[in-house]
Design brief:
By secondary structure, the chain is mainly alpha-helical. The chain has two domains: 1-45, no CATH class; 46-132, no CATH class. It is built from five helices and two strands. It has helices spanning 2-21, 30-43, 49-65, 79-89, 92-105, and strands at 75-76, 122-123. It has a two-stranded parallel sheet with strand order 1-2. Helix 4 (79-89) runs antiparallel to helix 5 (92-105). It starts with a helix and ends in a 9-residue tail after the last strand.
């Protein structure tokens, strides 16, 4: 019975890794994975379900909730655009941490710590906050 539990647990871990990282669990087929990665970069399509879900939620937020308060983000790019860029460029775990960090830095005191662009927005790019 414990053998069956270990097989089920390893399958669940494999499924979790494949969803979070967008990779397949079969280690012998790396050439196919490289070809798929190259094709998705060329076409601009995201194949990772976690990234696609995050981007969908951000798009819904931008379309429905972002303009309700008539508040304008003080950063360039805005917090939701920063999050969208992070999910496009980095893995879901790192993008989530970067988004959380950005939301914590978005406060009235941020003007003291960031340079301003010509439109008086604070400059804060995703490349400056890459974690690993």
């Amino acid at each position: 019975m414990s053998y069956l539990k270990s097989i089920v647990c390893s399958m669940l871990v494999c499924l979790f890794v494949s969803v979070c990282l967008g990779e397949e669990c079969s280690p012998g087929d790396t050439l196919t994975q490289e070809i798929k990665a190259k094709q998705s970069k060329e076409t601009g399509l995201m194949t990772n379900p976690a990234k696609m879900l995050a981007k969908l939620l951000i798009n819904v937020y931008q379309a429905v909730f972002s303009d309700l308060d008539n508040q304008i983000c003080q950063f360039d790019p805005s917090c939701s655009e920063f999050s969208k860029e992070a999910f496009e460029k980095y893995d879901p775990v790192q993008a989530t941490l970067m988004t959380s960090d950005r939301l914590q830095r978005c406060n009235p005191f941020a003007y003291q710590y960031y340079p301003k662009n010509t439109n008086n927005y604070l400059i804060d790019k995703t490349e400056d906050h890459k974690l690993w």
